[in-house]
Amino acid sequence: MxxxxxxxxxxxxxxxxPRTISASLEVARQRPDLSPATxxxxxxxxxxxxxxxxxxGDTSRRGYLANVxxxxxxxxxxxxxxxxxxxxxxIPSMNTGNPSGAWFANFTPDYSLYFDxxxxxxxxxxxxxxxxxxxxxxxxxxxxxxxxxxxKLFDVTAGDIxxxxxxxxxDGRTHYYSSSDAKxxxxxxxxxxxxxxYRYWDGQDLGLYEGPMVDGRILLANQVPGCTHPEVRTDxxxxxxxxxxxxxxxxxxxxxxxxxxxxxxxxxxxxxxxxDSTVKLxxxxxxxxxRLLIDWNPKSVGYAPLWIGDDGGNQTGKVWLxxxxxxxxxxxxxxxxxxxxxxxxxxxxxxSSR
Length: 354
What we know:
mainly beta; Jelly Rolls; seven-stranded antiparallel β-sheet; 37% strand; disordered N terminus
């Protein structure tokens, strides 16, 4: 991985391999106007407070087949627990990329709600990180002189469906994982302590932001106006950073347009997409007003619609909470933790059963 030569590093939980993508300075200079920082109204269709062990769902080794459950971390160990603050993932010393597993839930208990074309939804959740995580300086195990790509906050993916391309005989469903084609990820930018969003597209991962290094600063085309994040973390009223040992409130809004086709640049062929799709990320310290941080829409420079996937059958319907630190070189450090609470799955418009 070249040092900050491009956008986000993509980390597929199933494949555990990071990727990089590039951006031009010209793209970064052309900042689009952001929409008013007002979240859309909607209906909460499912929620988890993470106050009782039952909120974890199925924690067995076959939990990945459940409607709600957990997948284990590296070497088959590592699961979240419920404590007095919420659902806690522990990151022990000498951890690898997936030290504590993941938690997931389909959007409804009966698999009755999916978001396909001409609809929109939101995910809200609160997270808290041990302060040391924000200054951890994890290194890249493949290229030890380079920084590790950042830590995930949460993913939104295709929902499990009856039938489908990879049916499990036990329940007749195809179970989608965090590496599904129809995927949106919220994570940190390298070790910098501020959030970015990426998705799959064109055989690689195109970020929902633009971030080349210019004069030691990271220019974000679709993030907070007027902010150029410095190489060394500094807090200001303009730039937005995750705060140590504090609850952070996140809201991801996704809108799908009609199904259509778009050309894959690397293949020169068309692929199924949701045309005119948009993504917004809001954030705030818990208790404060949400701020619009990222606004990806057809007016954004470098815009491309959300990819449905090669088989064209994906419909969004599953959320993953996971402090994944992909391609991380083990190092000695204190026990760190990440907590989650107040998860809400929200229907803004449309949505249907499959």
